[in-house]
Amino acid sequence: MLTKFSVKNFRGFPEKIELDLTHPNSYEYNSFAIRGGIIKNGIIYGPNGSGKTNFGLAMFDIVNHLSQKVKRGDYYVNFPYAGKKNDDVEFEYEFRFGDTVVDYSYSKNHQGILMSEAMSVNGEEVFSKVKNIFSIDTKQYPMDANIRKNIAHSANNISIFNYLASTYPLPKEHYILLMRQFVDSMLWYQCLEERSFIGFENHVDSLEEVIIKRNLVKDFQNFLKNVSDQEFTFVEPNPGDKFLVCKIGGGTIPFLQIASQGTKALELLYYWYKKISSASFVFIDEFDAFYHFDLSFKVCKKLFDLKCQVFLTSHNTYLMTNDLLRPDCNFILDRNIIKPLVDCSEKELRFGHNIEKMYRGGTFRV
């Protein structure tokens, strides 16, 4: 699981901002949101322009860095903070795999070129490289002096992590392979003016073509009914069809011509929901931008039932209720700080409190 993340000098974050998921409160309700002492599910709120989208993108820099999964082509546009364009962007991650704690950090310049990289396991340094200074635990990774020298002075700024993962024969449960598998299984997506995603897949699919090919048309029809109470009757597709067609009043019409923005967002959610049973960490930006408030609640219930870590951003304070999550799983991001509600007030927060009303009343301050 991902336990901590921080970034510095990325876009709107000139100073270090850190998300720490290792200190859940002792609430006895909604325990599904905590696993092994780590916060598994959360919703991030914040004013417009506070950096919710950029924070999610920063968390997924590690996918751009280590994985061969799908990346955003425009990611490195406006990469460092505008006031410090010549400074590197610094990333720090902490993962926990059973009893093994992996700390991984690196920095990149304004072009996205790797400038430094370090890893430690359970507090013991595994490797470190800053400029031309390179060190590595040679007991774990035997390496002669010439190779170490070549790595230290390499002109192509290779990732030491990727080098070790691809060069050394490692057992299945080795922390490097576990971390690589975790990163390869991370998914970020949004459905706003445009649909985009990072990670998890190696290519971009047509949503409806996948639904048809996998014989999920009836299942998708039932999903729309169960989640949003919308009744669609789809024409049975022929082999090779790429678009869903609806029956209406004795006639037919393509689904996308009559689907609302919210229904199209549900189609995208359905597509990913059918795929992410094997995901490690899912981040959906503005997940309910086109949803009715009650639909947002139902979607959260389905997403938080997944085994993987799921974090969402939203402006919908209807979701800020102890009937859905807990005060240690609702986060506020503002002014280069991100904190759970429980740390944003001196008041003792209990199940019976209306935390949405308290939030609107200004009780919580980061």
By CATH reckoning, the class of the largest domain would read Alpha Beta
Count of DSSP H/I helices: 11
- Termini separation (Å)? 26 Å
What is the H/E string?
A: EEEEEHHEEEEEHHHEEHHEEHHEHEEEH
The overall strand count is 18
Proportion of residues in extended strands: 25-35%
Q: How does the major sheet shape up?
A: 7 strands, antiparallel
- Spans where pLDDT lies below 50 across 5 or more residues: none
Anisotropy-based shape = globular
Helix content: 25-40%
- Which CATH architecture of the largest domain would you pick? 3-Layer(aba) Sandwich
Q: How many whole angstroms does the radius of gyration measure?
A: 22 Å
Explain this structure.
With 366 residues, the chain is α+β, with helices and mostly antiparallel strands. It folds into two domains: 2-201 and 279-360, P-loop containing nucleotide triphosphate hydrolases (Rossmann fold, 3-Layer(aba) Sandwich); 210-261, no CATH class. The protein is built from eleven helices and 18 strands. The strands form four sheets. It has a seven-stranded antiparallel sheet with strand order 2-1-6-7-8-9-10. Strands 12-11-15-16-5-17-18 form a seven-stranded mixed sheet. Strands 3-4 form a two-stranded antiparallel ribbon. A hairpin with a 2-residue loop joins β17 (330-334) and β18. The chain is globular, with a radius of gyration of 22 Å. The mean pLDDT is 93.
